[in-house]
Design a protein that fits this description.
The complex is a heterodimer of chains A (274) and B (298). Helix content of chain A is 76%, strand content 0%. Chain A is an all-alpha fold and 274 residues long. Chain A starts with 11 loop residues before the first helix and ends in a 5-residue tail after the last helix. With 298 residues, chain B is an all-alpha fold. Chain B contains 14 helices and no strands. Classes of the chains: A mainly alpha (274), B mainly alpha (298). At the A-B interface, helix 1, helix 3, helix 4, helix 5 and helix 6 of A face helix 1, helix 3, helix 4, helix 5 and helix 6 of B.
Chain lengths: 274, 298
């Protein structure tokens, strides 16, 4: 811990120096440039860009649907994590491996695949009495798809490490299965569930590739904020694009901060020692 | 049914109906939400027969997009690998003020919209950007050209090697490296003879993960590409163009190649986990370790 101690291993200056140089050049300076550009035409331009009617309509999709998709993933993810850690059944390993699929499929591929499934003539779409693709419901499905692994992979290790003695003690004291779940298990996994939902939400807010194909991109209806940024850039409205981008960046920082807090809470709740 | 036996390490006190119900829900949700899109990719790709499938790859424009993707990854992935190793060495082998802050900062690109990853470079190098005028005078193209594609890809994929290596190197500890130094090994000797052999599987996985993401990146690349046909379209962008031209079978055929790359990455992850019995991050952050990295493993 003591900083006065000289480092035993060599390469401190080289490795940290290169890390900071690379990070600064490729990430930090560009982000500073984005911030400067946002306010280069004064605060009102920024204000107009983020409170434009069309922008606000896009937040409903990017933030609202992301939250709904995160909540959905929270419930389904908890069930999947529970089944994977507690039950033994055929194809358990296969089911476990499949969870990472949304990470493996490139976003554009996921986008066209989901569209093929849920468009009105699609595999699933043609059996449904209502439209899925080209409506907010389509966006919701794409966001639920990309967010699910975050929830499952966050809950799994916590459930696996949960001491069995807790449940057995509760059972010995006369608690039934429902009571054990609500009073013993759920409080223990709650931080992990919330962390997973926040991770899924954080990813969904900025998601672009898997959404734009299934969304149909109808103005005021199924437009997401990242798409609005792309459109402003294509029209060379750099300030408006930068304003929206800066706003989303602030949201991302906030989500990252929330994730840190939740992870610390999660680590403390699941045994204090990580 | 004996298939639902109680295993020794995971006690199962749930009543049978609940066990069945939850298992069915898990299979249905994973099947419909996650597996079906993958099946759709290959089914649509072969929907007009293998001839149409292979015809996709004889189209020179598509071939060009594949070469461009390879060229972008060939520069972005090695650079990110060097960064990942340097960053992991710095944050796991030394303590310094702001160390934990740096670790979370490295993850930032994962939580920022890929569109922003492309936009930041457009704002600097684009025609209306900070350096746009100067670059035009000197006839240098960054945006709507190869350099822009590489920059955007680097931005989006640069945490991947680092975040596989950081938990791995932290858990390995540094006692062996310290012993080597005590015995007189020089810096690079320690790195190549002690560190690299111990982290090589993790490093390999990190590189392959980074590569899969680099080749499949869509949002960031789409912003800086300008969609110039046959020039700045990488594979994902070519998929988008084919799809928008209603050449669905061709779009899915090209998509199936990227999907295969993803599946191979996933299988490698499962294989390496079996080897190390440690869960590797596909993308979900490992839970933070609060241990001081200067103290060797118990």
């Amino acid at each position: 811990m003591s900083r006065s101690r000289t480092h035993v291993l060599p390469g401190f200056q080289l490795s940290l120096g290169f890390t900071l140089f690379y990070f600064g050049l490729l990430v930090l300076i560009p982000i500073v440039a984005l911030t400067l550009r946002t306010f280069s035409e004064g605060f009102p331009t920024f204000w107009n860009a983020i409170f434009e009617e069309r922008s606000i309509a896009s937040y409903k999709n990017s933030f609202g649907l992301s939250l709904l998709a995160g909540g959905f993933d929270g419930i389904v993810g908890l069930i999947i994590a529970w089944v994977l850690t507690r039950y033994d059944f055929p194809f358990r390993r296969a089911l476990d491996a499949l969870i990472d699929l949304p990470f493996a499929l490139p976003t554009a591929v996921a986008g066209i695949a989901l569209t093929a499934l849920y468009s009105p003539q699609g595999w699933i779409g043609k059996f449904l009495p209502f439209k899925v693709a080209y409506t907010p419901l389509g966006i919701f499905i794409a966001l639920a798809f990309i967010g699910l692994p975050f929830v499952v992979r966050t809950i799994q290790p916590v459930l696996a490490q949960l001491p069995v003695e807790l449940e057995e003690a509760a059972a010995c004291l006369g608690a039934n299965r429902f009571l054990i779940f609500t009073k013993v298990l759920f409080p223990a996994v709650l931080p992990a569930v919330l962390t997973g939902i926040t991770l899924a939400f954080g990813r969904a807010v900025g998601e672009y590739g898997s959404v734009i194909f299934i969304a149909g991109n109808i103005a005021y209806y199924t437009e997401i904020t990242p798409l609005l940024i792309v459109m402003k850039l294509e029209q060379f409205h750099y300030s408006a694009a930068a304003g929206l981008g800066f706003f989303m960046l602030i949201v991302s920082f906030f989500i990252l901060f929330m994730i840190q807090i939740l992870q610390t809470w999660n680590a403390r709740r699941s045994g204090g020692r990580v | 049914m004996s298939a639902f036996s109680i295993t020794s390490h995971t006690p199962n006190h749930d009543p049978k109906p609940i066990v069945y119900a939850l298992t069915v829900i898990a299979f249905l949700s994973v099947g419909f939400l996650l597996l079906l899109p993958l099946v759709a990719v290959f089914a649509e790709a072969f929907s007009k027969g293998p001839a149409v499938y292979f015809e996709t790859f004889r189209d020179p424009v598509t071939q060009n997009s594949i070469f461009l993707t390879l060229r972008v990854a060939a520069l972005a992935v090695p650079l990110n690998t060097i960064f990942g190793v340097a960053a992991a060495w710095a944050v796991t082998r030394f303590t310094f003020p702001g160390r934990r802050f740096l670790i979370s900062l490295i993850e930032l690109p994962l939580w920022v919209s890929p569109v922003i990853g492309g936009m930041v470079y457009t704002i600097i190098f684009g025609l209306q950007g900070w350096l746009g005028g100067w670059l035009e005078e000197h006839n240098i193209q960054v945006i709507f050209a190869y350099p822009g594609l590489v920059l955007a890809t680097i931005f989006v994929t640069f945490p991947f090697v680092a975040r596989v290596l950081i938990p791995l190197m932290e858990s390995l500890g540094q006692a062996e490296e310290e012993a080597a130094v005590t015995l007189g090994a020089r810096g690079w000797q320690v790195f190549w003879r002690i560190t690299v052999p111990r982290i090589k599987m993790g490093l390999l996985y990190g590189i392959i993960l980074c590569n899969a993401r680099a080749m499949g990146e869509f949002g960031a690349v789409s912003v800086v590409s300008g969609h110039i046909r046959n020039q700045t379209c990488t594979m994902p962008l070519q998929i988008e163009i084919l799809h928008s031209e209603y050449q669905f079978a061709h779009a899915f055929a090209l998509a199936s190649v990227l999907s295969l790359l993803g599946i191979v990455t996933l299988m490698l992850k499962v294989y390496l986990e079996g080897q190390t019995t440690q869960r590797l991050p596909a993308e979900v952050p490992e839970r933070r370790r609060h241990r001081d990295p200067a103290t060797p493993n118990p």
